[in-house]
Structure formats: C-alpha cells, structure tokens
Amino acid sequence: xxxxxxxxxxxxxxxxxxxxxxxxxxxxxxxxxxxxxxxxxxxxxxxxxxxxxxxxxxxxxxxxxxxxxxxxxxxxxxxxxxxxxxxxxxxxxxxxxxxxxxxxxxxxxxxxxxxxxxxxxxxxxxxxxxxxxxxxxxxxxxxxxxxxxxxxxxxxxxxxxxxxxxxxxxxxxxxxxx
Length: 178
Description:
This protein has 178 residues and is an alpha+beta fold. It is built from 3 helices and 7 strands; from the N terminus they run αββαβββββα. Helix 2 (59-76) packs antiparallel against helix 3.
C-alpha cells in the first residue's frame, strides 16, 4: 500500500516536469502550421523578405528574431552582411471573451498511520469541486517583417546594415539560444 501513496506523487512530479519543459520551449524556430516562428521568401537573387511571428507582447524580441533569421539566411546564401530596406511590425490584439468553468472530481484518499505495533493503511472516499472564472483578457500576436538586400565584402556605412556573424553571436547570446 505504500506504493499507492508514492505513485500519485511521482505522477505529479512527472507532469510538472513535462509542463516546465513545454513552458521553456524555445520561441525561436521555423514557422509551422500555426504560422508562429520565422519564415522567409526569396524576392530576387540577393533580396529576401523575412518574418518572425509569435504570441505575446515582446516587440523587441520579435524584431530581434527577425534580424537573427535574416543574419542566418545571409550566411546560408554565402553573403557577409545585409541591409534592411523596409521593416514593419504588426500587432494583432484579440479580446478573449469571459469564461467560467466548473469541475468535479472523485477519488479515494489513502493514508497510513504507524504506531509501536506496526502500520495501518486506511482509505476514505473524497470529492472536490472547483470553479474557474476568467473575466476576459487580451491575446496578442506580434509579427516583424523585414526586407533585406544581401551583400559581400565591405559593408556599407549605413545604420540599417548589419554584419551577419556579429549579429548572430549577439542575439543568440542575449536570448541564450543554443
């Protein structure tokens, strides 16, 4: 009967670890079916449109991740630097409707009491009722879209030109990626 007590605890610990792993999943990734993450499209041989989209409200992170993808793409295409020729940041806030929920659970509480003559295991039925209320909130999607021109050799002295290697190192370090 001792295992009956430890099994729910070990399941709770495992569930907590799984949730922690999901919560710490990196946001910087290639966009999949839901559209969240980075994507790019080729416009000409040396011009691309790069996008990064996520849920939340961290505008600076979204802009940084779009630049990071631009730098990675620059290196993948065999170039040294890129110039941002246009940039847009889109924020889409959606209002979430108020919700309520009621939950009921039933089970058995198992406990053990020990004395000088040994231990005794007992159980009793238990029930629980929970009520959840959500009075509405906003859910945001944010997307940064940049168009870039790729280049090799001497980088232009332009505020919107970036050395790919340095940018990759700095942004990955700032967000503790890889």
